[in-house]
């Protein structure tokens, strides 16, 4: 329940910080805050997918790690890192399109900032490369 609330509350700051870094300007620059809720749906979807995939992977990998290493800290360490790594690698392409859509309106007023349009334009411009960054 807290994941969507937390994602929604921090989304405008996350977007403003991204725009400040990519455009080399102050965090409080007015252009960073023109569309503070742009990409909110993608943020919420990614948070839900990230949380659910991590815990699903953790529950699936725990018995295997405990069988090989025995229960304890090393098994927990391995499972946590594997679950986080697999989840991050699987969600990275979606995350790349999310961040790309953050800056579309500020770069081009006619560009569509929705996820599908962003995904298609990234794929047509660079193939798989933009999604692997």
Structural account:
By secondary structure, this protein is mostly helical. It is 73% helix and 0% strand. Helix 1 packs across helix 2, helix 2 packs antiparallel against helix 3 and helix 3 packs across helix 5. The model has no long low-confidence stretch (mean pLDDT 85).
Q: Could you write a compact summary of the structure shown?
A:
The chain is mainly α. It has 5 helices and no strands. α2 runs antiparallel to α3 and α3 crosses α5.
Strand content: under 5%
Overall 3D form: elongated
The amount of helix comes to: over 70%
Radius of gyration (Å): 18 Å
Provide the succession of SSEs.
HHHHH
Q: Give a quick account of the main beta sheet: strands, pairing sense, barrel closure.
A: none
Low-confidence segments, given as residue ranges, are none
The secondary structure category is mainly alpha
- Number of separate strands: 0
End-to-end gap:
30 Å
Our count of helices gives 5
- pLDDT averaged residue by residue: 85
């Amino acid at each position: 329940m807290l994941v969507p609330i937390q994602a929604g509350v921090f989304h405008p700051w996350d977007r403003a910080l991204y725009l400040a870094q990519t455009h080399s300007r102050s965090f409080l620059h007015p252009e960073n805050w023109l569309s503070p809720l742009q990409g909110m749906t993608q943020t919420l979807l990614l948070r839900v997918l990230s949380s659910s995939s991590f815990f699903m992977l953790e529950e699936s990998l725990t018995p295997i790690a405990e069988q090989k290493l025995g229960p304890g800290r090393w098994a927990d360490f391995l499972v946590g890192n594997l679950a986080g790594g697999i989840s991050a690698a699987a969600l990275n392409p979606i995350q790349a399109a999310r961040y790309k859509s953050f800056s579309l309106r500020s770069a081009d007023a006619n560009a569509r900032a929705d996820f599908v349009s962003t995904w298609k334009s990234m794929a047509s411009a660079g193939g798989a490369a933009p999604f692997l960054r």
